[in-house]
Amino acid sequence: MSSMDERATSAQGQGKAPKFIPPRERFLELRGTISSKWAIILGILGMIAFFAIWEGGHYITPEAQQRFLPSVEQVIGTIVQLLSEKDYFSDVMISCYRIYLSFFAACALAVPLGVFMGCFIRLRALINPTVGGLRYLPAASFVPLLLVWFGPTDFSKLALLFLGCVFFLTALVLDNAMAVPKELIESAMTMGAKRRQVVFGVIWRAASPAIIDSMRNMIAISWTYLVIAEIVAATDGIGAVMMRGGRFLHVDIIMGGILTIGILGVLTDIAFRLVRRTVVPWAYVRRG
């Protein structure tokens, strides 16, 4: 008799049911679960591994070429120096202003348009083919046109960032609205709900968690267009700082700008997650 059978027999003899011990999950468990504590620990370990690889790449590079791959501490030191001596904080704030203003302007158009297209099939048939086609136009190709229309102004940069995400976001919101189960809509209409109530009380509320996730994913695309928007006749912003560093082969400044954008992107992502948890708490799912 095995030890497990012995424990089960002993427990039955004492009038107790055997305690179920779930099998231990492997590290690469398919669709496994993880506690919040371990998610944080693994996330920190992943970041440490990234910076360790970066640092190792610097030291295995020949000394004569190490200036083209500065170490982590050199890049961080450059950021501190820019903040303390070059008014880098103002450039960061200007870039944040451009990103958030253009993105929320895109949301003001894309979110209602996507929801309404998901609700009304004739509106979708009218608009979706055009929006679907515009998604495939690279935003960078609009740079010459925007310069002709608006010149090297701040508005041309905002317009480029706006165009970089508005069409993709519209398509994503459309998919979110159409993913609402048809049974919810039919049940609401059966109970006498009017069209306005179905749109805002059923479809909007059911799709809003996914819409926030779509917004969170698309603002990452906006950050990727930031340098493109700020390299054209720009005198301020993170992209302009990076371009000035590139003219004099200051790779530490370029990588400092990249690291700054990465940090701002992560903070933005965290902010969207907090907003999602606060605004749509019924859709929040614990991962552990």
What key attributes describe this structure?
2 domains, MetI-like fold, 288 residues, mainly alpha
Overview of this structure, please?
- The chain has helices at 3-13, 36-60, 72-85, 88-119, 121-134, 143-150, 154-178, 182-190, 195-230, 238-247, 251-279.
- The chain folds into two domains: 33-69; 70-283, MetI-like fold.
- Helices cover 74% and strands 0% of the residues.
- The longest helix has 36 residues, at 195-230.
- The model has no long low-confidence stretch (mean pLDDT 85).
- It has eleven helices and no strands.
- By secondary structure, it is an all-alpha fold.
Helix content: over 70%
Give the second-level CATH assignment, the architecture of the largest domain: Orthogonal Bundle
CATH topology of the largest domain: MetI-like fold
Q: CATH homologous superfamily of the largest domain - what is it?
A: MetI-like
Specify the CATH class of the largest domain.
Mainly Alpha
- This entry's quaternary arrangement is single chain
Low-pLDDT runs: none
Radius of gyration: 26 Å
Number of helices: 11
- The ordered H/E elements are HHHHHHHHHHH
Structural class: mainly alpha
